[in-house]
Each structure stands twice: as structure tokens, then as C-alpha cells.
Amino acid sequence: MSELLGRNFLRALLQAGHRIEAHPGGHQSVDDALVALERAVDVLTCNTEAVTLRITGDAFSLDGRVLPHASLEFHGMLRHMEERGIGAVTVHRGAQTRDLADLAALVGGVSTDLPTGGTVVIDEFATPEPGGPQPLQGLRQSYVSSLDALEAFSHEGAFSMASVTEIVDGFIEERVGQSLMLATVHSLEQATHYHSVNVCVLALALGRAIGLGRDELTRLGTGALLHDVGRVILDEAALTKAGSLTREEWAQVRLHPQEGAMAVLAAARPGDESAALVALEHHARVDGTGYPDLKGRKLHLHSRIVAVVDAYDAITSRRPHRPARTPSEARNIIVDAAGTAYDPDLVSVFVHMLGEYPPGSLLQLDTGEVVMVTPGKARDLHGVLVRDMAGVLVEDPEPVRLADRRVVGQLLAEEAGVDPAALLHVADG
User: Over pLDDT 90: what percentage of the chain?
Assistant: First the structure.
């Protein structure tokens, strides 16, 4: 069972749940979302009578196949389903609209009932099958643990610094190329949390590139992961607003560095002070502008690293008020601001580290094929073929050497219909 099909079903289910939550009395947008969910189910069940989506540990599985990327992208929904007592969902071919609406309402938090019959069957307890999928491992497990830690802080207002540094150490153990590919994971569902984890991954890669030692990397990664914790003070509307912020909303945004620094200091142990500095300084510019006003003060090295990678991930992420930009566009924007917003030496190292086409970039070739760049030496660019010359998605991505191929453009993941991080397993790193 293709992860892409599972991802499309989860996305349609999440969207329907959000629409029902926003319009519990019914609305055209709810009807449209349920039609999209029906279509996703039709595709999912076209070759079988029924499929079962199961939660095992930190992962979704679909008919016994673990969905590693979808488990990251829809991590928030996975946790919400667990909280509602959902262990597994079996959807039959031709599932009725009413049953799908009940499922979406349950996922969206509008309903608390657990249906046990009909064309959609929900099991309250997930029992792992012998030899079935195991919880996420390694790099993805560190990513999930980071999301959980940030989610806990947003609810409880406190965190364990020891737990955070343990998570960061898990990232440090992984290879840079794979880490850079994993940093392509973005989600509008929990944009702040995913962004913070990606900034941590990218900051560690840049820290290694400039030769920081292990202990220094741990401190850097801790500050990077926690750099935006002050955003929990913001009104949710300010974070998800599609238009311009009001004066009051912008004033809240400008307060989050100080609030974050105080939150980190409250949990800090001796030696953790640099993490608080990163939270305070990551929006301050090297030319003395930015916020808060820190004119005449030399910014900490960790803060300057985080400022560069924070901007890169923000630019390459889709936000309610603007579309994402390609990695190449983001790189050029940062280069243009070197010396004013960002430390020019760090920008130079960052650009060299990423290369012309960072791992996870989706390239359009002159043949019409689409290739995703995989980690490797900058002078020997490699990738995997994800769409053929006819534009058809390749089921099993094939290795491609790009040295003799002509690149005519770079695509966003949405344009290519491909999730780079879902192909993490093909990276040679």
C-alpha cells in the first residue's frame, strides 16, 4: 500500500475534521471536504474490499505497512486520535458519507462516540500484529520526540531541559545528509512545532560545518529547538492569520523573544544559558536592527547560526499568508541579506553546505522528468527519479546521476506531488 495514498487519505480526513469542527451545523465547505474524503477512500480501496489504518507507538500503519513520513506530517492528528481512544480504523470500499462524517467529527473533536459498525469501523484498542510495524526509529523518532516535547510545553508551560538535550543528542548522532532531507517536513497543522524541529536540525548541520565540538553542538541544538517557545504566548489567530497583523498582534509577535528567554531560563541548568540567549536574540540582526532592540551588543554565535537557518526554513515553508519558496529562492534571499540581517561568514558556510541544490530539492529536467536530490558530494550530484517523462509518479524511485542531465527548473513539493522526506530511506547520506 503506497504511503502517498495513505497520506492523501489522512490529509482529507484531517481537513474534513477541521471543517466539521468549524461548522458543526453544516456548511458547503463541510460538504466539499466530505466529497474529497470520499474520493480519497475510493482511491485507497480501489483494489481491496477494506483497508485498516492502525496506530502503533508513534506511527501510523496502513494494512501492515508503516507510514513513516505521514506519521511525522500528521503527528498531531495521531496524538489526538490516541487521546480519543482510537487504536485502528477500518474503512470499507464504498464507505457511506454518514460514516465518514462521523469519523471526521471524531477526529475533529466534535464527537466522542466510537462507532463499531457500518462501512467505517473504529477499534478502541490497537493490538500490534506479530511481525507488524514497529514504532519509528532513529532520526524520525528524535523528530517525533521533539514534537512531543514542544507540544507538552505549549499545554503545560514547562519542560525538562535534560529531556530536550537528550533529544538533541539523538539528532547529533545522525548523518548530515539524512538530517537535511528530514528538514523538508512541514505541516500547517502544527507549523510552529515543525519549524522549531527543522531549525534544530539545520542549526546542527551548520554547527558541524563550522567545526563545533560535541558539547557545543548540544548547546546549539538545545537553543535552536527552543528558540520559538515564546510563541505560546501569542493568540492563535496571530499565528494562523492569512492577512496582515494588527498593531496589537504584531506587538505580541515582537514580545515572543523575551518570553521565550524567560521560559528557558526558568528550566535552565548551569551551562544552559546560551539557549536563553538564542531565544532572545534570534530575530536581532547583525546590523543592530530587528527585535528586541539590542543595538551595540554582539550577538551570540548560536543566535547568529539560528537566525540564518530560521530564515531558510521559514522561507521554504508554506504559511497561511504566503506560499512556500524553493530552496534556491530561499538561499538567494538569505545571501542578499548577508551582512545586514545575517552573519556573512555563516551565510557563506551555509550556502556551501547546502550546495546549489540541497538534499530534498525537486528538479525538473529538460526531458520532463522530476528528480529529487539525495545527499552526496557537491561535485557529484545524485538523485532519484520520482516522475517519469510522461509525468507519472514512479512507484520505486530509481537512482539518477545528475552530472550529465540538464536542469530547467526547481519545483515545490506541492507542484511535484512528492514529499521529499517520505523518501528518506533512499538517501545515501
Answer: 38
Please provide the DSSP assignment of 276-288 as one string.
HHHHHHTTB-TTS
Bridge partners of 90?
Answer: 52, 121
What Cα–Cα distance (Å) separates residue 233 from each residue in 104, 153, 360? 29, 11, 33
Grid cell listed for 291: 527585535
Specify the 3-state DSSP secondary structure of 341. coil
Distance CA 198, CA 429 (A): 17
Would you call the peptide bond into 292 cis, given omega within 30 degrees of 0 as the criterion?
yes
Report the alpha-carbon distance of residue 113 to residue 101 in Å, rounded.
Answer: 12
- Supply the pLDDT for residue 111: 77
Residue with cell 548551569: 270
Cα angle for residues 8, 11, 14 (degrees, 5° grid): 150
What type of residue sits at position 186? Answer: H
Cell numbers for 374, please give them: 539525495
DSSP characters for 82-101?
A: HHTT--EEEEETT--HHHHH
> Which of 267, 187, 177 minimizes the C-alpha distance to 226?
267
In residues, how long is the chain?
429
Is the distance from CB of 129 to CB of 64 less than 8 angstroms?
A: yes
Q: 3-state DSSP call for residue 369?
A: coil
Q: Could you tell me the three cell numbers for 100? A: 465518514
Nearest CA to 29 out of 112, 104, 84, 120 is that of 104
State which of 190-194, 389-393, 396-400 shows the largest mean pLDDT: 389-393
Backbone angles phi, psi at 399, to 5 degrees: -60, 145
- Label residue 213 exposed, middle or buried (CB < 10 Å: 0-12, 13-18, 19+): exposed
- What CA–CA distance (Å, rounded) separates 18 from 16? 5
On whether the pTM is more than 0.85, the answer is no
Q: Measuring CA to CA, how many Å separate 142 from each of 58, 93, 226, 269?
A: 11, 36, 15, 22
